[in-house]
Amino acid sequence: MTIKYFFLVSRQGKLRLAKWYTTLSPKQKTTTIKQVSQLVLSRKPKQCNFIEHNDTKVVYRKYASLYFIAGIGLDDNELVMLEVIHRYVEVLDRFFGNVCELDLIFNFQKAYFVLDEMIMAGEIQESSKKTVLRCLAQQDETEALENAERGWGDINLEGVARTALLSVQELKQAFTR
């Protein structure tokens, strides 16, 4: 399976994450994002999750307020790509604990890291949730160790994280009212 691109778009059409596995000019990327986003956002919920656009099959799935969109080759299996999207969301959900758009905005580097662990050079690299989560935990440990080596260990990072988490939770509550 050849994955050409993978991106997340909000209901309002804002790009939240973009990963390209083919070489395109910035103008072509912008055009592709705009066209594909408009195609996906204009579709009704009961319609099929596959669209042909130019020389790619667009496979998408909506979770809460985000659309997870992938472009694959015309002869690739759409159902496998739907499963990859679902697996990606499951890993994010397990890591963040009920992932939402704000988690991905404030921790975009983690979202990219998970995607990089699962897909490399447009091919599925790892499908095991446990393995990806283990790599994510190792990365967090390494980051904490580096922070301690830089002298940032004296700063109460947990307290800062709790404060940031509280503000995220307050924002979540404000949006759900």
Short note summarizing the structure:
With 177 residues, the chain is α+β, with helices and mostly antiparallel strands.
Q: Indicate the proportion of strand residues.
A: 15-25%
Shape: globular
What's the tally of helices? 6
**Tally of strands:** 7
User: What's the end-to-end separation, in Å?
Assistant: 42 Å
> How would you write the strand order of the largest sheet?
2-1-5-4-3
**Poorly predicted runs of 5 or more residues:** none
Rg value: 18 Å
**Major β-sheet, in short?**
5 strands, antiparallel
Helix content: 40-55%
- SS-based structural class? alpha+beta
Quick check: average pLDDT? 86
What is the succession of H and E elements? Answer: EEHEEEHHHEEHH
Assembly state here?
Answer: single chain
Key features of this structure:
177 residues; single chain; globular; 6 helices; alpha+beta; 7 strands
Give a description of the structure.
The chain has 177 residues and is of the alpha+beta class. The protein contains six helices and seven strands, in the order E-E-H-E-E-E-H-H-H-E-E-H-H. The chain has helices spanning 26-41, 78-96, 101-106, 108-118, 129-149, 157-176, and strands at residues 3-10, 15-20, 50-53, 56-63, 66-72, 119-120, 123-124. A five-stranded antiparallel sheet has the order 2-1-5-4-3, sandwiched between helices. It has a two-stranded antiparallel ribbon with strand order 6-7. Strand 3 and strand 4 form a beta hairpin. Helix 4 (108-118) crosses helix 5 (129-149). It is globular, with a radius of gyration of 18 Å. The mean pLDDT is 86.
